[in-house]
Amino acid sequence: MKKVKITVLRSTFNEDLAHDYGMPGLKPCSLMKAGQVFYAELGKPEGFCDGAWRTIHPYVFALANGAKHFYFNDWVRQPGVAITCCNDGLRPVFFKLEATDEEVKSPFI
Question: What confidence category does residue 73 fall into, taking pLDDT thresholds of 50, 70 and 90?
Fold first, then answer.
């Protein structure tokens, strides 16, 4: 199993939807900032958003276990990479996930 590098690409804010549906004073995500880098090993990286992790972890798991492409090979052109986002429709954050060559250390040894 390989470590997966998670890079925050962009934190967005759908101001029109937030105005229509969000709580008063809702702002862009305060936890995830463009340029942040995390490494996933056997679980959610320290300091990573719980909600975003629930959304992206299937891709992280697949990449950690050797997936090279997703869907019908018609999504991301670079093998071992996924571009995805959290499921917050008012303030989605976009991530680049990359399989690394670094092995995850077994917790049983």
Answer: confident
Q: Minimal CA–CA distance to 2: which of 68, 64, 56, 59?
A: 64
How would DSSP label each residue in 41-66? SSSPPTT--HHHHHHHHHHHHHHHTT
Q: Give the pLDDT confidence of 2-50 residue by residue, as tens digits.
A: 999 999 999 999 999 999 999 999 999 999 999 999 999 989 999 999 9
Looking at residue 44, what is its pLDDT?
Answer: 95
pTM score? 0.90
Sheet of strand 2-11, all strands in order from the earlier edge strand to the far edge = 37-40, 2-11, 93-103, 81-85
21 by DSSP, 3-state: which? helix
What element of type H or E holds 27?
Answer: none
For residues 104 and 11, give the distance between their C-alpha atoms in angstroms, rounded to a whole number.
Answer: 28
Distance CA 78, CA 74 (A): 11
Decide if 63 contacts 82 (C-beta within 8 A): yes
